[in-house]
Design a protein that fits this description.
alpha/beta; Rossmann fold; 19 strands
Length: 414
Amino acid sequence: MIAIGVPAEDQDEPRIGLTPETVKKLVKAGAKIRVRSGAGLRSHFSDDQYKEAGAEIAKSDADAVADADIVLTVRRPSPDIVKSMKKGASAIGMLDPFSDAEGLDALAKTGVALFAMELMPRISRAQSMDVLSSQSNLAGYKAVVDAAAAFERALPMMMTAAGTVPAARIFVMGVGVAGLQAIATARRLGAIVTATDVRPAVKEQVASLGAKFIAVEDEEFKQAETSGGYAKEMSDAYKQKQAALVAEHVKNQDIVITTALIPGRPAPKLISKAMIESMRPGSIIVDLAVERGGNAELAKPGEIVEHEGVRIFGKLNLPGSVPVNASSLYARNLQAFVEALIDKEKKTLVINFEDELVKGTLIARDGAIVNAMIAERLGGKGGHAPAASPPKSVANGGNGGKNGPKGQTKGAKS
């Protein structure tokens, strides 16, 4: 029987890796599951619900993971949790593989196999495992809702006997999954929405949601997408032209939402201090890339910065602010991946290391880093195994994904 352990997350992470719904399905698939007592409370899942679904309740994290073949987490597990795992067991979660290389190397050397769900290959059979899409979708929604709550005016146009209330103007920068959902949510709330991205493929998606596309559409723009559907690094000349266009456009916007990320790189700076100063007092910027350095110049992680009457929101972990939905979607992503590792007839764990899903997400095995990109980031430190080829496309941060809001099915990553 396959043993799965679910420890509690840190205090700043309300999500959980398995829900009662997914516990029930994995138990049926042949798994024995132990969940740390209270681990689901911040997502409003009680111990009783987990027990009814077929899980055992453990008194501590160490007890939850000690005999587990697979440990499921939201964030990178702590060294204490990994030390409590048996050698050769697998830890699966959003491991933030491009940050804290030394910490990641230390976890790898314990002998635990590490799978980073952010690196899931962008192939059809992995769509149900795409954690970036499921979580970014909620981040885009919450960015608009939070901005609307803080904005001290109405979003939709209103015709009244006393006069007309003009519609708010919302500008979305970066049209990945988060950006598409931000556009859709802002349009549902009645705002006038514009959006920009360096990838020409998203222009039709923006228009289909009722928004206007803003970009310098020259020859470089037409080639500004990788084969995996991600944004390419643009030339300095293009950046200057695009920045000039955006600067002029930003002046008249009430709310700006930035979501732009490039895999494995710091977030590109899209909003300068001068642009912020050109905006009207009372305007709002929501920077979804703040964890990677931010798209807005004055953004600070975990803070709301006010500059000349403009507020820059640097809230962290927006999906975690809707933990019931975020946990439910994330747990389904993990369930789908774990089921792909199970022999359905024998109900045993069979990890095929030649499988594209495994090769794409596996970053450490047998005490060594086995992912080429991660090994390169470590700079050759420590004893690393020969680097495996990276997946065809990877995503770093919260805005990748194949599927946008309903009806958007073409690659939409940023």
